[in-house]
Every structure is written in structure tokens, then in C-alpha cells.
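Re: the multi-chain job from yesterday

Posting the exact lines I submitted so nobody has to dig through the queue logs.
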Amino acid sequence: MAQQDNLVVVKDLARHFVLGKDQVLKAVDGVSFAIRRGETFGLVGESGCGKSTLGRTIIGLYDCTKGSVEFDGKDMKDYKSAAERAELSQRMQMIFQDPYTSLNPRMKVMDIVAEGIDNHHLAKNNAERTKMVIQLLEAVGLNEGHANRYPHEFSGGQRQRVGIARALSVNPDFVIADEPISALDVSIQAQVVNLLKNLQKTRNLTYLFIAHDLSMVKYISDRIGVMYLGNMVELATGQELFDKPLHPYTQALLSAIPLPDPKVERERSRIVLEGSVSSPINLPNNCRFCTRCKYCTEQCRKEVPPLREVEPGHFVACHMIK
Amino acid sequence: MMFKCKEKFVPAKPVEAPADLPADLFEAAEQNSSDLEYIARKHHSALYDGWIRLRKNKAAVICAVILIVITLFAIFAPILSQYTYFDTNYKAKLKPPSIEHPFGTDQFGRDQWTRIWYGTRISLLIGLVAALLNLFIGVIYGAVSAMIGGRVDAIMQRIIEILVGVPHLIIVILFMMILPPGVGTIVIAMSITGWVNMARLVRAQILKLKNQEFVMAAKLLGTSGWKMIMKHLVPNTVSVIVIQIMFAIPSAIFTEAFLSFIGVGLAAPKASLGVLINDGYKMLRAAPYMLIYPALAIILIMVCFSILGDGLRDALDPRMKH
Amino acid sequence: MSEKKKLLEVKDMYVSIHTDSGVVQAVRGVSFDLYEVETLAIVGESGSGKSITNKAIMGLLPIGGRIDSGTVLLGGKDITHYTEKQMRDVRGAEISMIFQDPLTSLNPTMTVGKQITEMLMLHKPGMTKEQRKERAIELLGMVGIPNPTERFDQYPHQFSGGMRQRVMISIALACEPKILIADEPTTALDVTIQAQILDLMKELQKKINTSIIIITHNLGVVASVADRVLVMYGGKFAEVGDLDEVFYDMKHPYTKGLMESIPILHSEDQDLYSIPGSPPDLVKPPVGCPFAPRCNECLKVCKLYPPKTHSFSEKHMATCWLYDERVKGAK
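And the result, C-alpha cells for all chains:
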């Protein structure tokens, strides 16, 4: 795999929060992977796995405690001058989860979407600014009439679309979608996901799609990474992950998802995980899944398993899998 | 803030389809996709919606009207009166209320009607100026504390806690005794610790806003510093500030009245409501009307501001979820 | 097939909610029945009226909400006109409800054990304090909480999300009600915990012989626990039937659209259909079928008049103009 194919390279990234004396929350603890140009990389995991924190650390909303992020071949810390930082902020954008708090309630949609345009002086005059905003609104399925309205007048799905238009306003190459559909109704989720897919084609976007709904992630992603308590435990293409999940957690996760197919549901047997996720505070230095894993061995209790490629393109972090 | 359903609402019964319908109605209909995103309601900003909600609150509206009337009287009654607030007339001393002297006269023959409206004017002025000063100092202090955060924030909060620890009135009285008596002195003395509540509220609101997704989105789009404050933080703090002013004004009026009542306030013949209440208290047996009218005035003003403040709080509560 | 007894009959219910922005006609003429020992799933999205319908049954409507007309027969008695005191006797003893967010549904200042014993005190006055404690510990064990004797004295914040939901279930089932209404019980939970809770509910249903109404928008959850399904849209009922009937022989275009907009994990289909538009504004409810503007099979009559209900089998019904005999090529 040629290096130039990778748009984003994450190396050993860690993000720790110090909560008090001797209380460290290792939200992300040593994650490495690469996102190829033009692909959709899905990131899944349950609460406390650190996927949102990972997204925010990659884009720079949080500083990284350890490790680094390379964007287009250059370490993000090396984008030092004001012009370079402005360039970086234009090339990477984010779509947020909560349609109710991701838009400033006191601003009209026109101004919300034009904020990036204004900050980076992408429009020569007011007329051009308006034209750009309307084009963006139309690209997300809204129209001119919506530009003068306020966020509280829209439905959740429409607000998400305004958020997408805002992210696209600076012509980014890379967009991190942080749980963009979790707060939406089922039928609206499909709308937004289809919109994202279309936009990817027309604008050559690369996505990091963070969500907890594995079915939706599989639909939109090329490759998927599964996270558990701050570590990435498995990484493979969507189909491979579903056909041959190797990590015990991935297997349990897939088995737990209820399928909208009564016959299949009646006939399947579930892998039921005992217990619940351990506390992310002061995690010990061993396999995080150990407390719930039925294969747990002495080695698992002593070392953190590294993420290794066990088959072409299929990575797992588990001592049991050779 | 809940609507009470007074009348029994009878939902419109669905129009039953008649038995004989023309056959062409059972053909496919044309779907207009632009209808789908149409927003039926007229568009208003959230503030305008708040204004409409406030108008519906009868108690708040009545109080607002009363306050306006009182203010108008306070401005014009002393000017239009044939008496002044300081002219004495020993021939007309201690006269009960009559057509010539609607509120009676005091022991020096001064017309109470003029004095009371003049006193109201002074009280309102003091209340307003003190509240505005508190606003100014409080907002800046709270905003700076929240924006910078970290250690600076911690130090600034400790300072507030020390200030709050010392009894507020004792400081004010001490100041009053050092500085020459007058309206300016009272205002300055009250502003020493009066701003603390506003600072805390503004700080809390801005801290809350800093964590909202729309602020993060703005950061990613390149907004920072002054732009961030003016575009995103201040507009969403305005309602907090306005509501706090509504409560700060009566608080200031009362503090001044109290000071005057205990004799540390304005010097004769200048009068504020507090001075008048003090004078009236001394003459309670001989001329109860001297106490009743100023007392009524101050009670009315304070109650109206409180009710109006409550109404504003209900009306301006930014509600995006239904 | 043995005739199962009807536990609950909801007939033609209309519920409106008076808000600052106007009167929301949340439920517009919904009827359904609940039989003994079955699980009925009520499926719908925001604004469909699914939650409000069940809150109306429980007498737990928000301020401003009222049942405008219709009846709810519980064991033959109409409970819509019950006073608050009468409803208190019904809640917990005959119908119980569990909610989506266990964090806010449990009292944070009371121990978990006390919350269960309170429920028992309310409806089973014959029990002594020791008997209640014993029963509460038994219930905690029954819902799968390890070390129930110790955990009896703990507070809700000491439990994880899934555990709290189990506690809620134990409170709800303490008095063995005939009906349990579960309003999105697993929406706020992780997928692996959701699987545990759903299994628990099925197990408890067998043990206590309760009927469950589960409100959800997740069709996977429906497929794994429900016997019958009721689909709601825009405050009205769209389709109802046995699980297999609704999933494999759907009649209403909304049901079809919903099914097609869910990515199926095991299929390799590349296209996800999405229903265009958004749910209707119920302050000004549309005149005809509420789904008409978004329906790809919409007829002219759909926009003018509300459709009639058609039966396809003993339990399978749908409200749609497509099945009227006047439609050319009617099914």
C-alpha cells in the first residue's frame, strides 16, 4: 500500500483526562490506523470506548496526550504558521451529533453556513456569499427559502443537513462525522446517510464515520475499526468483519445486534456477554476486554495485545489469535 | 411554563370519505418534492417568539404597564406640580390627603405628592444605575473568567468568594460613612459587591456554552477570540443578563431604601423612597399617610419587577426541543 | 387456536396536547387490543403518537395533555374517567410502565431496595416489612442483579445503565401486573446490554405471565421480542398484525418504506431506500392520509380523505387507500 494513498495516519494516539489525584481517564490509549484517500472509514464501539474522543483528538479539538496525527503526509503539529493552520482547518471538518445543540440558536441559517466562508474570505462580496450558501443548501436537499430561518424552526434531520452544509462550506477533503445520525428517527437516518454517500462521490470526500449502529456503519463504510475502552481491537473491511469476526468482542457485538427478520431472530443463538464495561478510569495495563472474555488467559491479564495483521487487511488485537 | 387547557378542546372529527367518489381519484397523484421541506410556520427569531410568549403572560404585561405608568409619573409629576419637593409652608403642615395635596403634607408643610414622585424618580434612578454598573462589571468579570479558564478562572472565583464572605451591607455602610452623602456615593457603595451574582451567572452560562457543539463547530471553521465572543457567546447570554437585571433593579432599590431608612442614605431635603419611609415612620402616629404612600410605591415597584422578571425568564428560555 | 382473553381494549382514542405553539393533536383515532401473555410492539417515529398513546392509558399525560375522546377498557372497565386515586391503584398493580432513561426514572435519593418495597407497600398492604424486603431481594435476583442482598441498600448512581434498567424492571414487576408497558426500554443502552435486557424481559414474561407493550422505533428489537406489531404514523394507526405478517407481507407503504430504510447487516444490497420528507406537523394535521406527502404510491384520494381500514387476515389490518376495491389492479 503506497504511502501517498493515506490521507490521515494516526500513530499511537492517546488522549488522557486527568480527573483528580491519581485518577486518569484514558479515553483513547494507543490507537494506530490509517485512512485512505477517498474511503469511508467506520469507527464503532459502545459507550466509553473512546470513539468520539478519538475523532475530536484527530481534528484538533483536544490535544493529544501522546502520539501523532499526520494529514496528507505532514504531521499536524508541523502546520505551524497562521496560513498553514488556516489551510488545515479548511481541509478537515466535522459534523456533530446533536442537531439541537450543534447550531447557534441565535443565528440565521444563512449566517451559520456562511461562517467558514467569512472566516476564510472565500467570497468576494455579499452576492457571491449568498450564492455559495444557497448552492450548499441545495446540495443537502434544502432550498433558498430556508436561509433566512432560525434553527429551532427545523426538524432534527433538516438541522443535521444544515450542519453538513456548514462543514462543506470550506471545501474540505476530510470530514469526520461524529455520530451524525444517532439522534435522528430511523427513516431520517437513511436520508442523511444517503446524502453523505452522494456528497462523497460528487466532492471527493474522505470520511471518518463514527457511530454505534454497526448495521449503518457497515452500509456506508469501506473499512471498519472496532473500539473497546480506548483501544482498537479489530480492523477489517465491512464484509470481512461481518463474515469473519475474529475478536471475541466483535463476535459478541455482532451477535447482539437484533436483526429485523423474525425467522432469523428465532433461529439464532446469541453470545451473551456477562457483566458490563469496566470503568475507564485507571485502566490496568492489560487486555481491556479481559473481565468479560471467556478465553481470558494469564497473558491477557498481563499485557495489552497489539493490533496485528493476521490476514491481509484484517487486523486483530488479541493474544489468542495467531 | 405550561398552558392550562381551559375549554374542552374538541378535535375536528375526520372528514369521512363519501361513498361515491369519482374513479379518477384512485389514480396516482403527482408528488411535489419541494412541498416536502416546506416549513409551515411563519419564521421568527427565537427572541421574537419569546416576546410573543411574554405578551401572553397577563401578569407580566400588567406589571410592565404599571412600571411604565409609575416611571412616567416619576418623571412628569414633580415637573407639572405647582409645589416643589423642598419648599416648606408651615401654614399647611401635616394636612391629610386632599385635592390640593393628594398625598397630604409633612411636618414642614412640604407637598407629599411632589416629594413622593420625586423620591420615586431618585429611587428608580439609583436602582437602574446601580444595576447597570453591576451589569457592566459583572458581565466583563464573568466573561473573562470563563473565557480564560484554568488558573485565572480559579483565582477570580476565589476573589468573589472572599467578597461574598464579608457582609455586604457592612461594607456599604462603611463606605457611606467615609464618602460624602449623595446619589453617586450610594451607587458606588452598592456596586462594590452587587455585581457578584451577575458575574457568576454569566460565567456559568459561558462555561456551558463553551462545551456546546456549535461553539466547537465555530472553532473548527476558524472563529476565535473577539468574533467568537460577539457572534456566539454573547447573543446566547443576553437572556441571562436581561433577566438578572430585572431582579437587580429592585434589589438595588431596596438596598438604597434600607440605607436611607437606617439614616445612612441621602441627606435632606433630597428624598428617595427610603428617606420618605423613614420620615413617615417617625410621624406614624400623627400622619400615617406619610408612611403608607411611599411604602405602597416601593412595594408596587419591587413586586412588579419581580413578576416581570419571572415572566421574562419563562419567555426567554431558549427551547429548541418541543 | 384457543381464544386468548383480551386484557386491554383501546377504542378510538383522541389525545391532544396544549402547548405554547398551539394544540398538538398527538393521537387521532387509534384503536388496538392487547391479549393475555403476548408482546405487542408499537412502532413509530417521533410524532407518531406511540408514546402519548401509552401515557394516556396510564393516566400519565404531560400537563396540557388530555384525552379528548375514546375509551380504554382494562378488564372491561373504562379507565379514562378514573380519578387520580383510582389510577394510583391501577398503576403498578395492574399496569406498570418502564421508561427509556433509567437515570432519570429512578429516584436518586432513595436506595434501590426502598423503591421496590415502596411499590409493594402501595399495592400489597398485607406484607410485613421483612416480607417486603425478602420479596425485593428475590426480585433483584430475578432480574439478574448479582449479590442482591448487598445491592438492596445501594443507590441508583452506584449501578450501571443496564443494571438500572433491570432495577426499573424489578420495580415494575414487583406486584406482578398483568400488563407491562416498556417505552423505548433499550434505546439508551449499548447493543450488548440491550440484548441482555431483551432476553430478560422475555424470560420474565414467561415466569410472570405478563403481557408486554413495547414501544420502539427499532425494527430489529421488534423482530426479536414481539408477537404482534402495531405501526403508527402521524397520530394514526397504519398497520397491525402478527409479527410474520407485518414483516413478510407488509401492506402499508410506510411500513415498507421503513423496512427498506434499514440496512440489513447480512445482506449485500448496495442501496438504502430513504423515505423523503419529514413527519407531519400535528398542530395542523393534514386532511387526508398523514403519510400522503411522502408516499411513493400516493393516490389523489389519499390527499383528500383519510383512508379506511382493510383486513387481510384475522389479525392483519392496514389503513390505506391502495386496498380499496376501486383502485385499478387492487390487491
